[in-house]
Write a structure and sequence with these properties.
This protein has helices at 3-27, 31-54, 60-69, 72-89, 91-102, 106-129, 132-135, 139-146, 158-166. It has 168 residues and is mainly alpha-helical.
Length: 168
């Protein structure tokens, strides 16, 4: 050991290094600590969301509302096909109804476009934020995935296991 090392001792050198590190954090933020705090806040927000949905009811009303939420897309698709069938079956009646649609004021069309756009836009935004494979699982599954434990696999159903592997 050198003269300075003997004079200061190993503890003194370590404390000088710690003091320099603490002093540098006064002028420049500790990026690692910022990332840790950011991750901790994100984890806490996800846990709060998980707690909110942990006790979600599965009552008849919940099933009814979920069924209603699934109706607009199929009804719009079947309704469009129905318009084609109606046009072929009764061209004069179809023409009369289309003249009626031409009389609908433009602001009402804008309102309908906004409602439909927001409905489908909200769905798309939801699936962009949470991938479909993860959305199919509970919020607790998201937390397990973020913690690095991986996604649960079904040992009893090989088809589900293959599907889960294809989603990664």
């Amino acid at each position: 050991m050198g003269v300075i090392g003997r004079a200061l001792g190993s503890g003194a050198i370590a404390s000088v290094g710690e003091a320099a590190g603490d002093l540098s954090e006064v002028f420049v933020a500790n990026a690692t600590r910022e990332m840790e705090l950011s991750q901790e806040a994100y984890r806490m927000a996800l846990e709060a969301a998980a707690e909110e949905y942990r006790h979600a009811g599965d009552t008849r009303f919940d099933r009814f509302v979920n069924g209603l939420n699934r109706l607009p897309r199929p009804l719009m698709a079947l309704g469009t096909v129905g318009l084609f069938v109606f046009a072929m079956a009764d061209p004069s009646g179809f023409s009369a109804r289309m003249v009626g649609l031409a009389e609908v004021p433009e602001p009402l069309w804008w309102l309908l476009g906004a409602i439909v756009g927001f409905y489908f836009g909200a769905r798309e935004l939801h699936y962009r934020r949470v991938p479909r494979a993860v959305a199919a699982r509970s919020v607790g599954g998201i937390l397990r995935r973020l913690r690095g434990t991986g996604v649960e696999r079904s040992e009893t159903n090989p088809a589900l296991s293959d599907w889960a592997d294809g989603q990664r």
